[in-house]
Known about the structure:
The chain is an alpha/beta fold.
Amino acid sequence: MVQESLQADSLAAQQRLPRHVAIIMDGNGRWAKRRSLPRFAGHREGVKAVRRVVEACKSRGIGTLTLFAFSSENWRRPSMEVGLLMDLFVHTLQKEVRRLHRNGVRLRFIGDRSAFDLKLQSLMDDAERQTAANTDLTLVIAANYGGRWDMAQAARRLAQRVEAGELRAGDIDAERLAQETCIADLPEPDLFIRTGGEQRISNYLLWQLAYTELYFTDLLWPDFDDAALEDALRSFAGRQRRFGRTGEQVEQNERA
Ligand code: IPE
Ligand code: IPE
Ligand code: MG
């Protein structure tokens, strides 16, 4: 009896597994500060948490993981920190891509990569090419990404099509705009996680988060581990997503 109900619970949990998890990895600086270390030590430790969460998502069968690595506003940081972050980015790609590829992970980058130096840009291009056929987990890295930039570039593309005479202004609707935003080919995020205690979106996937379940934790990113992901997934599994309908409608749908 107990066994049966446990099985039913885990089945329900599986069915309520997000297909796409999007994370704001925040709190690296504070993690370091608490240890009287330079902020950079927190970023370095944060890479370990990235490795852990990629593994954890893959082993649970979550199809897509999107990580905010560097926002379009993070250029405002002291140039020393920005430089160290770029070095870490290059170093991490050089070191990790082969392993990710072996593990069946497909890598994608979103954001305006033209601002990065050419070496980093070519590492990003190579990583995408090399892993393009992998199907176990799609790992999207948002780098020099901003949700407003994403919407603006989508609008620009539509405007170009209008200029070219392929489309009329009156044809533009939410569906068409959505198709031009980043990662339009992937399912929208089901679960958003932000570590570090702040409860804000910080110009992350503004368009794509319209119906995403939001989860905030005080844990600092370098401390985020499998158990922390499990907590977030449990919270997600317990929520009723109504998408504008009534709770009764959703329950009826689930029974059918
Ligand atoms: C997130 O950690 C990493 C990046 C923005 C690159 P922070 O560096 O923002 O850490 P806190 O918020 O200062 O603790
Ligand atoms: C958001 O964190 C960006 C990343 C995690 C890459 P920030 O630390 O930059 O966000 P704010 O400035 O506190 O909103
Ligand atoms: Mg921060």
